[in-house]
Write a structure and sequence with these properties.
Number of helices: 10
Radius of gyration: 21 Å
Number of strands: 0
Oligomer: single chain
Largest sheet: none
Low-confidence stretches: none
Strand content: under 5%
Shape: elongated
Mean pLDDT: 77
Helix content: over 70%
């Protein structure tokens, strides 16, 4: 638990401070590492290339998780519930969208995209590549991004509780944190359940849209800098 300094006439944080850097690191690690990381991660790593998957996973953790974690630790200083809710909604929406993409690539058929690619349709070749590598795309979207978004949304939910209640009593903190976690979990589970139905019914169009988007992002540097190779 963070220590709350005594009122000695000096300005102090509303939420107290951690007794040491080690306590903060252990608290963050405890909130981030779950049973899914312990039991599921070795199997997923073995099925998706071993060391190469671990490198990509670590790059995603540091490239996506670290900036969001830093922004989450700054929410207390901002004291803005609007910013907190916006960050929370963004993370939840990203997790649901990635889950929809992961389901869509496993449900889509590869043949329609080959037909479009033969006709020169923009993005069709990339969409066919996504379907051909559906197991890797689904593992990344559903497992990696899903675990990261779930962990970060729970952490930001706790930050929102700390902003709503100034130095709450233990029972209030426990109940409010449990309610916030339940609400976030219900939104994520409900959104993914609806998204799975939508992804199965519109799998071809979803994968085609993602293929076009990835192709556009891939060709964007050459459009912006035509004189570079």
């Amino acid at each position: 638990m963070p220590n709350v300094p005594a009122d000695n006439g000096q300005r102090s944080s509303l939420h107290g401070f951690w007794s040491s850097k080690l306590a903060f690191i252990l608290a963050v690690t405890g909130s981030a590492v779950g049973l899914g990381n312990i039991w599921k991660f070795p199997y997923i790593a073995g099925e998706n290339g071993g060391g190469a998957f671990v490198l990509i996973y670590m790059a995603c953790v540091f490239g996506i998780g670290l900036p969001i974690m830093m922004s989450e630790t700054m929410l207390e200083k901002l004291n803005s519930l609007i910013v907190s809710f916006l960050v929370l909604c963004f993370i939840v929406v990203v997790g649901i969208i990635c889950d929809v993409v992961g389901v869509a690539v496993t449900a889509a058929q590869e043949a329609p995209f080959h037909a479009r690619a033969a006709s020169g349709v923009f993005g069709a070749k990339k969409a066919a590549d996504l379907v051909r590598n559906a197991h890797r795309v689904a593992s990344f979207c559903n497992d990696v991004v899903g675990d990261v978004s779930g962990t970060l949304s729970g952490a930001i939910g706790v930050a929102i509780i700390l902003q709503l209640f100034h130095q709450p009593k233990p029972i209030v903190a426990i109940v409010s944190t449990a309610l916030m976690s339940a609400i976030i979990a219900a939104i994520i589970v409900g959104g993914k359940a609806f998204g799975k139905v939508f992804a199965i019914r519109q799998s071809t169009e979803i994968v085609f849209f993602v293929g076009r988007l990835l192709t556009f992002l891939q060709t964007l540097p050459r459009k912006l800098f035509p004189f570079t190779r």
